[in-house]
């Protein structure tokens, strides 16, 4: 008589269980130095981005165009709002 060999499929699920989840991406922390010189430079970056675009833009779009973070964009916008250089137009920012 021929004997049947027992086959196990337990090894396959074990290998699948050992797969590790991909590491989560951590959010970048942006450290913004707040002094008159740095705030003035960020205001200049924001102003130049708006001037070049010649249209109203969102904070995210301004940050992308100026190649600075959204926090730095907000910092520069505060300066420009105080000076009356920019205004809010239907939720978007434009030159005054």
What keyword list fits this structure?
two-stranded antiparallel ribbon, mainly alpha
Describe what you observe in this structure.
The structure is a single chain. It is built from four helices and two strands. The protein has a two-stranded antiparallel sheet. Helix 3 crosses helix 4. The chain is elongated, with a radius of gyration of 27 Å. The mean pLDDT is 83.
**On the 0-100 scale, what is the average pLDDT?**
83
User: Low-confidence runs (pLDDT<50, min 5 residues)?
Assistant: none
Residue share in helix:
40-55%
Q: Which percent range describes the beta-strand content? A: 5-15%
Compute the number of helices. 4
* Strand order, largest beta sheet: 1-2
Distance between the termini: 96 Å
Radius of gyration: 27 Å
The largest pleated sheet is described as:
2 strands, antiparallel
The backbone outline, from C-alpha atoms, is: elongated
Q: Could you say which structural class the secondary elements and strand pairing correspond to? A: mainly alpha
**What is the H/E order?**
HHHHEE
Total beta strand runs: 2
Summarize the structure.
This protein has 96 residues and is mainly alpha-helical.
Note the topology.
Elements lengths: L10 H7 L18 H18 L5 H8 L3 H14 L2 E4 L2 E4 L1
Antiparallel strand pairs: 1-2
